[in-house]
Amino acid sequence: MSKYRLVPGTPFEGEMSFPPPVGVVLNNTNSNTTIPPHKPVLCTGVLADGREDSWLEYIPEKLPKGKKPPLIISCHGGGASAELQFNENSWWCVCEAEGTIAVFPNAGGQAKAWLSDDPPAGGGPGGPGRPGGGLMDAFAGSADGRASEENHHIKFIKALIGEMKKKYDIDEGRVYMQGMSMGDIMTMMFSRVCGELLAAADCTAGPSPETALFNEDGSLKGYQCPVPMYQSRGELDNIVVAQRPGQETTTRQDVNAGNREFWLKVNECCDLPRLAIRGVNNFAFYTGKKANVVYRDVKHRGHGQTLDDSFWAWETLFKHCRRNPDGSVTCSDSDFTSTGDKNAVAICDGAQFAYVRNSKVKLEAPVFSEALTNFDFATRKSVEIKRDLYVPVSALSQFFGAEVEISDDGLNALIRTDDEEYEVASESVACLHGGFLEAMFMPAKVRNGVLYVALRWFAEVVFRRFVTECDGALYFSGHYGEMSKDMAYLIRSILE
Q1: Is the pLDDT confidence value at 298 over 70?
Q2: Is 243 buried (19+), middle (13-18) or exposed (0-12) by CB count in 10 A?
Q3: Alpha-carbon distance 366 to 362, whole Å?
Q4: Which segments of 322-452 does DSSP mark as H helices, in order?
Q5: Which of 82-96, 132-146, 443-457 has the highest mean pLDDT?
Q6: In which residue ranges of the chain is CATH 3.30.457.10 found?
Q7: Among the listed residues 106, 190, 90, 107, the one whose alpha carbon sits nearest the alpha carbon of residue 146
Q8: Helix or strand or coil: residue 162?
Q9: Would you say 347 and 354 are in contact if contact means Cβ atoms under 8 Å apart?
Q10: 93, 228, 246, 430: which one has the fewest Cβ atoms less than 10 Å from its Cβ?
Q11: What is the chain's Cα-based Rg?
Q12: 134 pLDDT more than 70
């Protein structure tokens, strides 16, 4: 990987403006910007339908000698521009590090909306969840759920790929596409209509209306071929687009799941994913018979693209994918994507299964949650402090390899690790080890004849794991991470 230097920026202050002035950086829960070593070049040309279009080109300071460079196409959101899209991601860093070329097409028109020159109904930019115009009209008016190949923006991007091939002799087998918000929907659509031109795609923030992806019987609407797919979402993004025909969608997580499901089926990803939570980044890696899928949800982020989204897409998928001359796709895994978190465990309330080292295993009895309460002497009332998830004590053997010995009456248990022995008893918060009696916060409990313990205490205190919880799901591994709502949703869908 080539070296490049980061340029210090001035923090953005004052009212929101796009793009920020030169030298000013913007950082919030939706947008991050940075300062490249040089500006992209604005180009114009008539590439399709006799109409003049514009785009930005970013060429790294050094292109590899004797090798054809890959191409990245990055599409802006509704109401935005190529310049803003360039500023809000780090494709220029990938270009400098990997010797790639990036182009940023402009949708153009009054609304700056993909597929339409007309301002959408209501005067808004026509992004996801907004009424009328742009892509929403194209989806609604398309008989098979995909935009027509005669649509100008489809033709424009196809021609732009051809233009880059002639201009820079790019590697035809390594053309990648990414888009944010409405650009996500444009990328999703182009991948379905012209997927044979792409080695992989990155759909960020969208998502596409499920009405465009599924028929009423649940079958998939039109697509040309498998495409390696990376999808990235922000946990705080609450935009909900048109739901699946015949199915009421109530949450953003449902719509995200539908967008994920579409490509899992197209790419024939039949096996369960490898999961990983690295800091705020929540990943699911799927291997398909025809192409792979990477899913990423980011904790504490809203509707937008993180500055490092480009690198995550490149490192987890793009750099490992190639479209072959016969139209097939070659996908390989990195060490990270092939394993996920190697020793992680996931459980959720009510499930009798756990996800242990990326395999679904059956527990002796279902997981349940119990509240920890505090008696407030001032109000004379008990207040719930938190809820802990309980697992059968036998699960400590499945999760950690500990030796578990349960008494004949089922009310006590000894848990032996490599260097210590721990004793617990039903309805007691005491844990006795090495002559030391330690309080566990939550007591061991017997339910339906099975002795249970609260998992979090054992994971953190005894086995020194990092634990994260969200929406009734718990995950632990050997490193820090924060579970997002989509990861909790995914874990529950696997285990229930």
Answers
A1: yes
A2: middle
A3: 9
A4: 335-339, 395-400
A5: 443-457
A6: 351-478
A7: 190
A8: helix
A9: yes
A10: 246
A11: 26
A12: no
**Which residue has 């031109």 as its token pair?**
197
Contacts 24+ apart (CB under 8 A), 467-473: 468/277, 469/389, 472/348, 472/349, 472/350, 472/369, 472/389, 473/346, 473/347, 473/348, 473/349
Burial 172-184 (b: 16+ CB within 10 A, else e): bebbbbbbbbbbb
The answer to whether 296 touches 281, Cβ cutoff 8 Å, is yes
Q: Could you give the residue ranges of the DSSP H alpha helices within 169-325?
A: 182-193, 252-266, 309-316
What SS3 state is found at 27? strand
- Provide the 3-class DSSP secondary structure of residue 496: coil
DSSP bridge partners of 74: 178
Q: What angle do CA 252, 130, 52 make, to 5 degrees?
A: 120
Candidates 3.40.50.1820, 2.30.29.150, 3.30.930.10, 1.20.1740.10; CATH matching 10-339: 3.40.50.1820
Within 265-420, strands assigned E span 274-278, 281-286, 293-298, 321-323, 329-331, 345-348, 353-356, 359-362, 368-376, 381-392, 403-406, 412-416
First to last CA, the chain: 42
pLDDT digits (tens, 9 = 90+) for 216-238: 888 998 899 999 999 999 999 99
What topology does CATH give the domain 351-478?
Copper Amine Oxidase; Chain A, domain 1 (3.30.457)
